[in-house]
Amino acid sequence: MQRVVAALAAAVVLGGPVGAQQSPDSTARLQRRALDSLGAAMRTVQSRLDSLERSPAPPAAPARAPGAYMNVSFVGLTDFAWTTASDIGALQQGGHEPKVNGFSIPNAELALDGTVDPYLKAFVNIVHQLDDKGETSVELEEMYFLTTALPKNLQVKAGQFFVEFGRQNPQHPHAWAFADQPLVLTRLLGPDGLRSQGARVSWLLPTSWYAEAMLGVMNSAGATTFSFRSDESSLIHGGEPIERTARGGGDLLYVPRLTTSFELNDTQTLLLGASGAFGPNNSGPSARTAVYGTDLYWKWKSARAAAGFPFVAVQGEYLYRQYDAAARARAVPKYPLGDLSAVTLRDDGAYAQVQWGIRPRIIAGLRGEYVSAEHASSDPQLYGRRTRVSPNFTWFPTEFSKFRIQYNYDQRRGLGAAHTLLAQFEFLLGAHAAHKF
Amino acid sequence: MNILPLLKLAVVASVALPVSGPTVGTVPGPARAGRLNVVATTPDLAAIARAIGGDAVDVKALAKPTEDPHFVDAKPSHVVTLNRADVLVEGGAELEMGWLPPLLENARNSRIAAGAPGRIVASHGIHMLEIPTGFDRAKGDVHSLGNPHYLVDPVNAKIVAAQIAERLSQVDPGSAATFAANLRRFDATLDAKLAEWQHELAPYKGAKLVSYHKDFVYLADRFGLDIVETLEPKPGIAPSPAHLAGVITLMKAQHVRVILVQSFQNRRTAETVARQTNAVVLDVSQQPGAIKGTDTYVELIDSIVRSLANAFKETP
Asked: How many Å apart are CA A119 and CA A143, to the nearest integer?
């Protein structure tokens, strides 16, 4: 900069009246030198400007410093439902499904997540619901940490969480493709999914394709371990549940899962999984339950996708449950009293659904499903064989809001057909949600 | 059912497999494979990383050149790619916020963790444009850290290249001289090309155009062009008939004759507007490889500049 100032000063001095008093030759020489000097100075300035332009600017101050340590978001879901069935609660048995004809709030979810330290991330989900009387309930749905720096491709998750059984169980309602959860998940894993306290170890296999093995070890008791030591287990076996505390490793719930994925080509991806859940149930002191499941997800997405559209996705799961019910006292008052003898109850079910992302933010869906039951409660309204077909249509005005309309055609053995119309509206406030595959 | 034998088997397998398998964790670091595994979120970043890394790196992009980089599927295969990465180059400024976090969460790779030498956030050091003063989604899906489509300005590409060279040298000091030489070559090429591009577009300084999304703001800023409106009423909001009617009126009033559209954006909407305004729809891309003959960064900007100059020439 000093050189620039000197050159400018020289130009002013030499080009001014003083210079006019000198001889024409020397004046011209001086002026030429001054011009040369100015030219050099200009080149210096230009090169410094270029270099400044190439240099990285200092990082801008974070625009959202207060949120840097934790993301906060809120998802609000409003349902409208109307059915021809006499009791919508018996028809829509899922925990996040409407329980009344008319409007309901089946899921209002406050989600917090962030990085704890260089080794851990943490997630918290607090769910608010309005019941069929309009009363609010609040529940700590999930709260867990996840390791980020274990060696050997290992990862540990611990706390309370939806166990990784199949594809849909770990998903929250706002990620579902339909307004209600598949019947087989409600019946075999529970109305609120399979969720408990425990730890899960996962290992990303050293293969050239994606393959991941997981093992969850969880508490087997509680309202969200429906097929195991749940107080609601009489809905499955029809008897009085016994008091059964955990005395050893065999009284915990074990959930192994293996999942793998392949790129079929540039636009198609296949994801396959196999899961199991093994643990005690409280029909008797040594009774046990085993649930097996397989799942598939296939997706085609255009190579020129805009906002993720168009796409076609197919998802399906098959579940089989073997429930060893011990000899037990009958619990259902409307049937004659008396003991029930020991029996192995076998139930299964499956669903398959297709989603067609027709154009940005518009999706048409179709789901078909069945559940087959053999159990002692003999209450067909709750647990008879059932098939259901559900077309739906979803429109996302933006990434942060959603409208959905769905029709369910239900066929329940012994109860006949039911027609149900469901409509949903959902909004998201706060942190932008990342989308899992 | 007694599951203890199964558990024992699982434990034995998990211990034995890494030892007896091909390699422990199959993480090809520089010492083993000789080349750094560099993963870039988008093809433009990959092209720059390739130019700087040369033969010392293998580079892979997660997003396809033809797809919307805001909405890439977090596919399981990307988890494997990131698990093996020595270096990750991301665009930053919330460009990948909808899909990169779950991938990184499952990739379990500390070499590319936030703050590690192998994690390059390319937007750091860029003079970001359109940083919002307040956060309100009524204004659309605005990125709080500024407009993330900064790489269509060649000067920004030089800043990113310098950052990549510096970080690659930290991760693989043995190849630092190669990276420095490649950076010098990249800079020299871009300096020469920038003068050429500026000369080519100089006659059209102040020329008005319309883009589909706010994705060519940095290009306009560099070359003195004037993007008067976008077909999207707000970032990420689909064009409405009322908004398009307004765009048509504006284009007619200001004699705007060029509409920029990328391969994943709705060309039909642009064509409808173009028909009513006597404009041309210009197919351009921000990603190398989306248009034939644009495999490198220089070829990409060459293609954009050539297309613009031709369009302005043909639509006076």
From this structure: 17
